[in-house]
Design a protein that fits this description.
Number of helices: 8
Strand order of the largest sheet: 2-1-3-4-5
CATH class of the largest domain: Alpha Beta
Strand content: 15-25%
Structural class: alpha/beta
Order of helices and strands: EHEHEHEHEHEEEEHHHEE
CATH architecture of the largest domain: 3-Layer(aba) Sandwich
Length: about 230
């Protein structure tokens, strides 16, 4: 499951991709129609993939790409455009795009492009494993282990633990975790983080790490590095 942001002002294309990725494929999917809205979302939320229309009202797709990369954004970017000119392709890739798909396109091809960008090596190197103390998290399999005990996490449980392990000794409130892991709409559901945190803690308890994630009263959640 990927977290995808679509930036597309063509309503027909937007509705088609929303149905394909969100309803039929179960991805976390967000759709905006302007570059300005995209930049606002990207300033607060993280995404695995950005599907970026080249021609947008106001801020263009290229503007969004350049701004995202300038600010350290690491999302995979696929340009969606009716322009097949090689100069545009070269420009988009030079400014930080990862791929380029000319309209009209088949949703199956776009899905294949996304899978290709997100695909990890079949054998995860030690450097790719996340570790805090005795806890190891394997991004490929979503398995968290503690010495000889292990358990596999659901995608959202994995995202939650991954984020906290990447930011040890830092405290994050529910709003921070919503912005980092879920879509903006998740802010409307006050119990979203608590519910997934409860599930995650139950799985961590099963491998002897019930106290790995600490609750800081009035502040949020954190994992200690020591």
């Amino acid at each position: 499951m990927a977290k995808i942001l679509l930036v597309e002002d063509d309503i027909q294309i937007g509705e088609k991709l929303k149905e394909w990725f969100s309803i039929e494929r179960g991805h976390i999917f967000e759709w905006v129609t302007t570059g300005e809205d995209a930049l606002q979302l990207l300033s607060s939320f993280g995404f695995d993939v950005i599907l970026l229309d080249w021609m947008l009202p106001g801020q263009t797709g290229l503007d969004v790409c350049k701004h995202h990369r300038k600010n350290g954004g690491q999302s995979k970017i696929i340009f969606l455009t009716g322009q097949s000119d090689i100069t545009n392709k070269e420009q988009g890739l030079n400014y930080g795009g990862d791929d380029y798909l000319v309209k009209p396109f088949d949703c199956r091809e776009l899905s294949a492009r996304i899978r290709s960008l997100l695909r990890r090596p079949s054998v995860v190197q030690a450097s790719e494993l996340l570790q805090v103390g005795d806890i190891l998290l394997d991004p490929q399999s979503r398995i968290v282990s503690n010495n000889d005990r292990s358990v596999q996490l659901m995608p959202k449980e994995f995202k939650l633990l991954e984020f906290l392990m990447k930011h040890p000794d830092q405290c994050f409130g529910s709003a921070d975790l919503n912005r980092a892991i879920w879509t903006s709409e998740a802010n409307l559901e006050s119990n979203t983080v608590r519910s997934w945190m409860r599930n995650l803690r139950a799985k961590l308890a099963s491998i002897g790490q019930a106290d790995l994630i600490k609750t800081i009263a009035g502040s949020g959640y954190k994992i200690d590095s020591a």
